[in-house]
Amino acid sequence: MNKVSGGAVRPEPGPAQSTPAGPHSWQWARERLDGLPDGRGLNIAYEAVDRHVAAGRGDKAALRCVAADLSVTTVTYAELARLSGRFASGLRALGVGRGDRVATLLGRCPELYVTVLGTLKNTSVLCPLFAAFGPEPVAERLRLGRVSVLVTTDELYERKVAAQRDRLPDLRHVLTVGEGRPPGTSPFEALLERAADGFVIPATSPEDMALLHFTSGTTGTPKGAVHVHEAVVAHYATGASALGLRPDDVYWCTADPGWVTGTSYGISAPLAHGVTTVVDAGEYDARRWYGILARNRVDVWYTAPTAIRMLMRASPRGSPPDLPRSYDLSALRFVASVGEPLNPEAVRWGEEVLGLPVHDNWWQTETGCVMIANVEGAPIRPGSMGRPLPGVEAAVLERGPDGRARVTSGRVRVLDDPDAEGELALRAGWPSMFRGYLDAEERYRRCFADGWYLSGDIARRDADGWFWFVGRADDVIKSAGHLIGPFEVESALMEHPAVVEAGVIGRPDPVAGEVVKAFVSLGPGFTADTALARDITAFARRRLGPAMAPREVVFDQHLPKTRSGKVMRRLLRARELGLPEGDVSALEEAR
Ligand code: ATP
Ligand code: MG
Fold first, then answer.
1. Which residue's alpha carbon is at the smallest distance from atom 14 of ligand 1?
2. pLDDT tens for residues 498-538?
3. Ligand 1: which of 140, 447, 457, 490 to mutate, judged by most atoms within 8 Å of the beta carbon?
4. Residue 183, number of CB atoms within 10 A of its CB
5. 475-577, which class in CATH?
6. 3-state SS assignment for residue 421
7. For residue 443, how far is its CA from the centre of ligand 1 (angstroms)?
């Protein structure tokens, strides 16, 4: 039984996080947020939209929505406040209230933002789903989340939900965007038209549940991470510290709002800062993306390593960068990425081709906000994810035999030696820390020890405090007594001119325990043959030395990836060993 639904589950007791009031600290952010009028609490949607209207900034563009055909619809802060208020009134009229779950299964369209903000205004809980999920993962998440309202399109409903409806007894209302009127649904537009203006956001405790986010499912069955309204403090602080947002910026976050990046940094952080956010309904295409950056004069761009690598494929370093050069990218001030390790090659590509390095940062669904980052103005060490942000205390903990932090009588050991590898941990208690895993309280508790949140990732910290990602605890390879992080091997492989992406696993070996095996995908113009495999292997041996270099390199143009673009090493391993593939709902091909 999970206690989350009624309020918050606090982590294991531990020292509270200190909140110094320096720039970009949590305290600094709290002072810059308004809180609900009359001291009625803290609500993400009020901070994101209504307070700007109250302060006379209602005419400013909040969203610049680019449709698939490139036509643009601008939504001002005043319009977004009004429409989201109406949606909240509409929910209330349906009898949907505090704590009830509202899911979105929508493309990146204005209605999505109206739904997200209206749901939060109504103190209901938003559960964003990725529109490209197939029927099974959609139904599974609706069921696990006990979702009572779904907002989707008529077409997505017909394709992905209608046949599953019987299995979803909690799903009371389906609101659809579009002309079609599938049985069992009602039109989104009509709800907005009927609803009254003047919605007053009810009192909202900072600890009220706001968001239910399913993790990417890279390492197993997706977990439902619970977040509360207080998260907006962290979104605001890190919007400034990790992304360098300034009020007049035009900002573009390419992550889909079906993932935590798309809500924390696609909705909450930029709107709380009052910037103009570009929303692209279209899919990745190099020309389209450069065009959007140029036409909108985007200042700050937040994207993913996989997207950067796709752009690299379209205009490699060393070749004349004709494609990006034919666009005016002069407005760009800051480029950041998250989700996977950013290989040094990608950082340098940014410098050469975009004129700006790409700033890697690290966080998780569970952390709710960026925790470790390469920030504006600080030197970048390519391949490092940066340093902890203000208010964040990060450490590397000694590991036990199971590969996770060793906990002895409730205590952990912080490794202070430079470059020591261990489990990356964060001092518990930051504002956007997840407050539970849905229906898995024991699993949640196991994430905390001795006042630390244990991330499940392995990292090292160098003598100057920069953190380097080694791998996930489950992915680290043990070969002939060495511990090998797949990322370092993958990074080295991607420096080879032919290799654009790589996934590295440990293959069981009677002598070494495990040996390194690499799956690589090639750029255009390269032929997958034995000579190239040999060349790549030799290249990796020169870079990494024989202990770390892959013993075997095979070609794979379709590395299994999650829908958010992460290489699923567990699937590579399962396929290699002929083991069951486990939960594949997050797999990119799983349509
Ligand atoms: P699941 O928890 O379901 O297996 P997931 O961990 O991929 O999926 P997310 O919360 O979306 O789900 O991703 C967080 C993880 O992504 C981190 O724990 C880390 O392993 C990886 N990650 C995120 N940013 C970075 C980065 N900058 N460098 C390296 N890895 C990163
Ligand atoms: Mg995870």
1. 364
2. 999 999 999 999 888 899 999 999 988 899 999 999 999 99
3. 457
4. 7
5. alpha beta
6. strand
7. 18
